[in-house]
Amino acid sequence: MSVRTRITTLLAAGCLLAVAGPAVAQAPNGYPVRPITMIVPFAAGGPTDVVARIVGDHMSKTLGQQIIVENVVGAGGTTGATRAKRAANDGYTIVMGHMGTHAAAVPLYPNLAYDPAADFEPVGLAAGTPILILAKKDYPAKDLSAFTAHVKQNAGTLNMAHAGVGSVSYTTCLLLNSILDVKPTAVPYNGTGPAMNALVGGQVDYMCDQIVNVVSQVQGGSIKAYAIATANRNPALPDVPTTKEAGLPEYSVSAWNAVFAPKGTPQPIVDKLTAALDKALDDETTRKRLLDLGSDLPEGDRRGQKALAALVKSEVERWSKVIKTAGPGN
User: Fold this and answer.
1) Strand 67-71 to strand 120-136: parallel, antiparallel, or no bridges (unpaired)?
2) DSSP labels for 73-131?
3) Radius of gyration over every alpha carbon of the chain, rounded to an integer in angstroms
4) d(Cα 195, Cα 207) in Å, to the nearest integer?
5) Are 291 and 308 in contact (CB under 8 A)?
6) Residues with Cβ < 8 Å from 196, sequence gap 6 or more?
7) pLDDT (tens digit, 9 = 90+) per residue, 171-204?
8) Distance between CA 90 and CA 262 in Å, rounded?
9) Mean pLDDT over residues 78-107, rounded?
10) Predicted confidence (pLDDT) per residue in 127-153, tens digit
11) pLDDT per residue over 273-329, tens digit each?
């Protein structure tokens, strides 16, 4: 072989390695090779944080790398969701979004920095979370009927806690207040955890919250639960009536938590994350931890990427109508 031929061959081989190198580094079977960050757009201790840590714990075992929860608070969860949208789409940053960040935020924030459908890859629904109407332990009303009457008569002097405009606690109480035609003073907190602490401490009068955040407080008597906004009672709090049973059937609402990756994350990586999430939801211990908190676990055709994409679309439409009906200033 001539010297020229050898040089040409070596150059050709080098070019092939240069082309093949990055592809090998990004191959799905090499993922993940380091810890994954799961952004939770709210403070530690809130319902989204709790679901993320339970699900993330099992996903870590399946993926062989730790999922590290990073709490990024602010603007009803949209600060954390924005950070996730802007993260590298390499599978090492994901976000535990929810009904607020990936649906209700769209009509609430005209200048929202992201589009829930266009800027994220849906991984899968993690849990549904029923909503309860709650009040401080010494609130004078004994049942939901008395509660709604008292709120209507005293809305101007009452404080309603929430985790920021666009959060689940904000939007679900917005719906409640719209039904009752009242506008109490809305007090924002950096997450549902701090908001719940304020309710337990009696610093605010009432709030609407996800069941995963309130079971122990209701059972312990540190807050009152007037009703759960679902068709059936929840096994975690069997003594709490449904809103239909308690006389407010028009208030029917449930929140949800779901995993998303930044847009452009390679499909094989998204598929691997989806499989890990499904395995977590099939695990007996993980299921028990979520069910004991009152979560509604997705089954069958409610799981997976397509189901989540459809859910986001329908929820954006739903909450756009609710918020439009609530009127200026919400």
Assistant:
1) unpaired
2) --GGGHHHHHHHHHS-SSSSEEEEEETIIIIIHHHH-TT-S--TTTSEEEEEEEEEEEE
3) 23
4) 8
5) no
6) 46, 161, 207, 209, 213, 214, 217, 223
7) 999 999 999 999 999 999 987 888 999 999 999 9
8) 8
9) 96
10) 999 999 999 999 999 999 999 999 999
11) 999 999 999 999 999 999 999 999 999 999 999 999 999 999 999 999 988 887 645
Name the amino acid, one letter, at 72: V
Confidence of residue 43 (pLDDT cuts 50, 70, 90): confident
CA triple 318-72-165, angle to 5 deg:
35
Q: How many CB atoms lie within 10 A of CB 142?
A: 10
Tokens 């799981």 belong to which residue?
303
Query: Tokens standing for 304?
Result: 């997976």
Please, what are the domains in the chain? 32-128+256-326 (3.40.190.150), 130-246 (3.40.190.10)
In this model, does residue 5 exceed pLDDT 50? Answer: no
Share of the chain above pLDDT 90, in %: 80
Query: Which residue shows structure tokens 């810890």?
Result: 35
pLDDT at 303: 97
Token pair 């059936």 is at which residue? 232
Residue type (1 letter), 187:
V
Write the secondary structure of 233-265 as one string of H (helix), E (strand) and C (coil). CECCECCCCEHHHHCCCCCCCEEEEEEEEECCC
CB under 8 Å to 41, separation ≥6 — which residues? 48, 72, 73, 77, 78, 79, 80, 81, 95, 96, 97, 98, 101
Note if the pTM is more than 0.90: no
Structure tokens at 9: 């061959």
How many residues are there in the chain? 330
Closest C-alpha among 112, 156, 150 to residue 226: 150
